[in-house]
Amino acid sequence: MLRSPLFRRSNLNALIGAMTLCAIAFHAHAADPTPAECAKIATPSQQRDAATIQRIEQAWLTAEYRGHPEYLACLLEPDYHTSSRSGLVRSRQDVIDRVPQVSNDAKEVPKLDTIVVIHGDAATAHSILRTTDKAGNPKEVHFVDGYTFHDGRWFAFSGADL
Fold first, then answer.
1. Which residue from 2, 6, 83, 109 has the fewest beta carbons nearer than 10 Å?
2. How does the average pLDDT of the chain come out, rounded?
3. Helices marked H in the chain
4. Strands 89-91 and 138-150, how do they pair?
5. Model confidence pTM above 0.90
6. Domain ranges of the chain
């Protein structure tokens, strides 16, 4: 059965459109950085101490504010999960996907106050973010992150908003 050139063109346009959507979806969930790339992205000179965890917490906030999801892709364990005050549980990918896709390295990042407890190869960080709400009123946001040390650096395995 012969088909008209218009029908063939319509099918070609539909195929091109579908391929474009697949390419966009693939780009949005691009592969994680390689271990070598993560070694360059990760917070440098990591030790098993509170100061390192404080630097990591600040770098994490900076990555979220300035649009650097690759930092989180290197920091968060594959089975990372976090919970909100309302009980909503987010996966590692959910957290990474919330980071703006457009970088803005000029964006101001608030300074965190972080209390750290180290226990062998595990650490807990309770961070306090002092900021303002939409009306300009002072606001404190508290959150806790759990870390484990392996392969020469710290990785986050859980979190919770308080």
1. 2
2. 87
3. 5-28, 35-41, 50-66, 69-75, 92-97
4. unpaired
5. no
6. 1-30, 33-161
The single-letter code of the amino acid at 147 is Y
Q: Are strands 76-83 and 153-161 parallel, antiparallel or unpaired?
A: parallel
* H or E, element range at 4: none
Given a contact cutoff of 8 angstroms between Cβ atoms, the answer to whether 95 and 72 are in contact is yes
Q: What is the DSSP letter of 45?
A: S
Whole-number Å distance between alpha carbons of 95 and 82: 8
Q: Which amino acid would we find at residue 140?
A: E
Q: 37 φ, ψ to 5°?
A: -65, -40
Tens digits of per-residue pLDDT, 110-156? 999 999 999 999 999 999 999 999 999 999 999 999 999 999 999 99
- Answer yes or no: is pLDDT of 25 > 80: no
